[in-house]
Design goal:
Length: about 270
């Protein structure tokens, strides 16, 4: 059962927002594009890496809030394959911050029964990063609470290409018949296999694009864009996104039943002039 006091203190604006939610209609899976670290730092006349460093607190707040809301899954977009184009110092700092986060938060993840997973091509990362990630995967493998996915060295198009390659190999080897290649066959070969698709996709910093993120999985996701820069994102911003999500009708291409349109009463005709 969700313990509201662990999310927001009574008699606060955050608690009023939490109390306004229908806790029986929370999204099962929330995906987040964490954007705005560089702009956050620039506004404060700081190096870009300081924006990434400040963003760690937002990761912690979002993961903790998601777990306390008992979401089934939370997926954060941390590093795309395109991010390798950034300055080498920035990339090195990002990887160092990732290792620092795992070192500091792993015990908390285990304590809160959070299962840590990696979405992306882990083998393309520095060996020291792979070691830290593997340790987190091993330590939380027994956890049965919220699944915390972190998208690293990730590309939505590359993920689909890998799934297609796996299907082609299975068909060639006779493990899969061509006529059995369907949506389920593709989904089972994605990084997120076994998880529900995101109900809600949040993007911070106001940018209106999906940046090659979970292209298959977000086919029917509700998209919520906030101007809040990622380092400023906290529990109340996640609650605001969920509140907006609950205002929407999820039709999945169908038409929901509508109230009948009332016909206007017949108008009186003017009397004929004799």
């Amino acid at each position: 059962m969700i313990q509201k006091d662990t999310i927001a203190a009574p008699h606060t604006p955050d608690r009023a927002l939490l109390d306004s939610l229908d806790l029986s209609r929370l999204p099962r899976h929330v995906a987040v594009i964490m954007d705005g670290n560089g702009r956050w730092a620039r506004k404060r006349h700081l190096p870009r890496v300081e924006g990434h460093r400040a963003g760690i607190a937002s990761v912690r707040a979002t993961v903790e809030t998601g777990a306390r809301l008992e979401l089934e899954a939370l997926t954060l977009y941390a590093f795309s394959t395109e991010n390798w184009k950034r300055p080498r110092l920035e990339v090195m700092t990002l990887m160092a911050l990732l290792k620092e986060y795992i070192r500091r938060e792993l015990a908390s993840l285990v304590k809160n029964d959070i299962s840590f997973r990696v979405v992306g091509q882990m083998e393309g990362l520095d060996p020291s990063v792979q070691t830290a990630l593997t340790e987190a995967l091993r330590a939380t493998a027994h956890c049965r609470g919220m699944v915390f996915n972190i998208a690293l060295n990730y590309s939505g198009r590359a993920e689909l290409a890998l799934a297609a390659r796996a299907i082609a190999e299975d068909v060639k080897a006779g493990r899969l018949a061509p006529e059995d290649v369907d949506e389920a066959a593709i989904e089972s070969r994605l990084y997120t296999a076994g998880l529900p698709d995101p109900d809600l996709l949040i993007r911070t910093s106001g940018e209106m694009r999906i940046s090659n993120y979970l292209l298959w999985q977000i086919a029917y996701s509700e998209i919520y864009v906030t101007p809040v820069l990622w380092p400023d994102f906290r529990a109340r911003h996640l609650l605001e996104a969920i509140a907006e999500y609950q205002k929407r009708e999820r039709r999945y291409g169908a038409v929901l039943s509508e109230a009948p349109i009332e016909e206007e009463p017949p108008r009186l005709q003017p009397a004929a002039v004799l």
